[in-house]
Amino acid sequence: MREASKKLDLLALSSVPLVMTLGNSMLIPVLPLISKKLGISSFQVSLIITVYSIVAILLIPIAGYLSDRIGRKMVMVPCLIIAGIGGAVSGWASWKMDDPFLVILIGRVLQGVGSAGAAPVVIPLVGDMFKKDEQISAGLGLTETANTAGKVLSPIIGAVLASFLWFLPFWFIPFFSAISVLLVFFFIKVPNQKEKKNQSIKEFATNVRDVFKVNGKWLFAIFAIGCIIMFVLFGILFYLSDMLEKVYNLQGVKKGLVLAIPLLALSISSYISGKKIGQNKNLMKTVTVIGMGLVTISFIAIRIQHLFIYLVLFLIITGIGIGVTLPCLDAIITEGIEKEHRGTITSFYSAMRFIGVAAGPPAYAYFMSVSEHLIYYISGGISFLAVLIVMLFIKPDKRSQDDPNSKHMPKLA
């Protein structure tokens, strides 16, 4: 009975990354239309994604600290409400103001504040809910799948909504947030935890510093890979959204459907990866190398062959590579950190992912202005860098190799 209840908790929790992803990614296919409606440049319109991410980057560590001190749910629910308010502000400005760009950005700032304390807290909460590593891996696989499912649905939903009114996607952010608030509030049962020792900020900072002193190399490696993945993913989505419209004359729902194809591959592969990796740290490393290797190869192939059908095929391969990698990164970092510091440490990981989200669109806007080929060189090059980082710095402890049930996590060179 308790297992069934935990599954319901997990499904409710999965609504958070789903909703947060929808609230951001469904704007990507609409960005060219927003640019036309507001009379702003590609770089300016990319700031609608970037300011959201920058605010989240700054506040995620604070949210992680608070979730360790006052509880995951106490942070998550208010932040979901703030995210909804931010969407409403952007929607109102687009509807009522003659020059709404600045207020849209203010709304996106609020949404970033809310996002900082919502989606990133999901990872440590999954770790709190389960005791066995294979259950944690499967749970993280499901939440990562919800995240990627949001990416699959978002271009379609965004395009459909914008086909009625260009600013309608902003108004659906509070709607989606309200649904997630209800699910989290009524269905998620936070596990009973031992009484926490009250720590000063100085004591807490010292403990976190000690965690990095012991585990720093492999943690920084995972931070870097998470950042690279999101940089490539959101950068290439921004590029595709623009290219499909300008080169292939695909707009609206048709463009959304094409954008959804590689993201669907990402979502399915993420779910399968989370189910299969269990607690095998060596397998996690191998899958990560293979995944980022596939991403590297796909961009080399796109550089060689530009036909539309091959473009879609190779981006599907990119989606699969990213999809199998993400649950491995989530599992390594969650299972490798003690519960009392899990929220804080995973918040740094989430912040690094948001750095990738923030940097991707404006960076790719610049690459597009220089050369289309530069996009493929950069994407393939930094994906290969991720492969090297995994191979050089993520080395499971020999005790975890000899004993699959060992709690000893990766020690890095």
Number of domains: 1
CATH class reads Mainly Alpha
What class would the helix/strand composition place it in?
A: mainly alpha
Tell me the distance between the termini. Answer: 44 Å
Share of β-strand residues: under 5%
Looking at CATH, the homologous superfamily is MFS general substrate transporter like domains
How many H/I helices?
15
- Overall spatial form: globular
Average pLDDT rating: 84
Instruction: Return the string of H and E elements.
Output: HHHHHHHHHHHHHHH
In total, the number of strands is 0
The biggest beta sheet reads:
none
CATH arch. level architecture? Up-down Bundle
And the CATH topology? Growth Hormone, Chain: A
Low-confidence stretches: 404-413
Percentage of residues in helical conformation: over 70%
Mind sketching the topology for me?
Elements: H1 2-25, H2 31-38, H3 42-70, H4 72-96, H5 101-116, H6 119-129, H7 133-164, H8 168-187, H9 201-246, H10 252-276, H11 281-304, H12 308-335, H13 339-370, H14 372-393, H15 398-402
Helix pairs in contact: 1-6, 1-7, 1-8, 2-3, 3-4, 3-5, 3-13, 4-5, 4-8, 6-7, 6-13, 7-10, 7-12, 9-12, 9-13, 9-14, 10-12, 11-12, 11-14
Give a concise summary.
The chain is mostly helical and 413 residues long.
Notable characteristics:
413 residues; mainly alpha; Growth Hormone, Chain: A; disordered C terminus; 15 helices
Description:
There is one protein chain. By secondary structure, the chain is mainly alpha-helical. It is 84% helix and 0% strand. It contains 15 helices and no strands. It has helices at residues 2-25, 31-38, 42-70, 72-96, 101-116, 119-129, 133-164, 168-187, 201-246, 252-276, 281-304, 308-335, 339-370, 372-393, 398-402. Helix 2 crosses helix 3 (42-70). The longest helix has 46 residues, at 201-246.
